[in-house]
Every structure is written in C-alpha cells, then in structure tokens.
Amino acid sequence: ALVSHLLVRAVVTTLVGLGQWQVRRLGEVRAANAQLAERLLAPPADLVGLLGSTADPADLVSRRVVVSGVFRPEQEVLQRNRVHGGLTGLDVLTPLDLGDGRTLLVRRGWVPPDRDEPPVVGAEPPPGTVRVAGILEATVSQPSFGARDPDEGVLARVFHPDTARLDRQVDGDLLPLVLRLTAPDPVTADGLPRLPEPPTLDEGSHRSYAVQWHLFAALAVIAYVAWWRRRLTTRDG
C-alpha cells in the first residue's frame, strides 16, 4: 500500500507540475502578446537613437523602427521552411550597413523554393542609401536538438536567423536583432520578395495542454481511489 501511495503521489505531482508549467507559459505568452500589441500601436522610432538609449538590444524586440543604410546583397542568406499564403519557400535575409560599423539583418520577404541561391535574382534590394521601416525580431540561437546550421563555413541557407553565427560571414558588427520589413522594397519585375506577413498574437496550445495535464492528474486520483475502494470491498466481502 505504501509503495502504491508513493507511486500515485509521484505521478499526480508530475502531472500537476506539467499543468502548472503550461499555465506559467500561457502567462508568459499573454504578457509577450500584450507587449507586442502595445508596441505595434506606437509610432516608429529611429533605431540608431533607440540603440543609444539601451544597454541591451534585446529590450527593443517588437519595437517599430525606421533606419537608414545600404543593403549588401552579396552577403544575403536565405531562411528555409518559411510559409507565405500557405506556400512553403524561403525568406530573404539581407544585411543592411548602418554606416557606423554596425550591420542589421533585414527580413525583406518571401521567395518561392526555386529561388534558393543568394543573392536572389529578381528579388534584389534597392541600391544606395535607403530608409526602411519594420518591426524588430529577436535573434534565434541554434537549438540543442533538431535542425541546426553548420558551425563552419559560409552559409547560403539557414534554419535559424542566428546573428551570432552569421556575424562570422557578415562585414561589420551584426546586431543581435532582425528587422522584419513592414513596407515593401521597390517592386521588382517578378514581384519578389513578398512582404513578410505581420506577427500574430497567438496564445498557442498552452491553455488546452494545461487543462489536459490537470485532467490527467484528476483521473489518476479518481482511478486510484476507485481501485482501493474495490479492493477493500472485495476483501471485506
């Protein structure tokens, strides 16, 4: 009896812990969505000025900004497995030279899978100094498991916009941010790249998973109590 009690207690504690973790994740997602919604309503700010006002560029994620610079299409990379309008293709990530030794990776838009060689022909950025507007995204580090980009060599296509990794092959100091364009480049003859779709305020499946884990915990307790009741009833009979 003692062993079964301890076993069920461990199972229920684990299930409740998983449910509570999902509740915490839901709270984090809601807080991030609230911050994103607030920042999307704010007018665009000058990126260089914002960088001078913060010690951590990561604090600027989800801010609407404008910035001037010169695109470097010769150092462009493509991000794999990107979906636009239900079609899978690649996103064009082009470095923007800010003219002060710093460089910003710009998500200029989507291209079909047959345009998988950078710089993408028919999706060239405008030449010379440009002023672009967009929303800042966080860099994405290489995961501990799953698809990873090679540690060595010059990358033409990547799974993740990992600015620390791409800084090795891009001139200047690559900022730990990615700018998702909200205003299109001058339209090319092929209409590419297609402007990135806006960020979504999606809570994901955390709520349903939280309910699921707590239900499993409750069912485990009910089943265990029912089992003990049947056992005791059978023994008394």
Structure overview:
This protein is of the alpha/beta class and 237 residues long. The chain has helices spanning 2-41, 47-52, 163-166, 206-236, and strands spanning 45-46, 64-71, 77-84, 87-97, 102-111, 129-138, 157-158, 173-181. A 5-stranded mixed barrel has the order 2-4-5-8-6. Helix 1 (2-41) packs antiparallel against helix 4 (206-236).
Keywords:
237 residues, five-stranded mixed barrel
Shape: elongated
User: What gap, in angstroms, lies between the N and C termini?
Assistant: 19 Å
The radius of gyration computed from the alpha-carbon positions, rounded to a whole number of angstroms, is 25 Å
State the share of residues found in helices, binned by percent.
25-40%
- What order do the helices and strands follow? HEHEEEEEEHEH
Number of strands: 8
Explain the layout of strands and helices:
Layout: H1 2-41, E1 45-46, H2 47-52, E2 64-71, E3 77-84, E4 87-97, E5 102-111, E6 129-138, E7 157-158, H3 163-166, E8 173-181, H4 206-236
Parallel strand pairs: 1-2, 3-7, 5-8
Antiparallel strand pairs: 2-4, 2-6, 3-4, 4-5, 6-8
Helix pairs in contact: 1-4
Write a short abstract of this structure.
Helices cover 34% and strands 25% of the residues. It is built from four helices and eight strands.
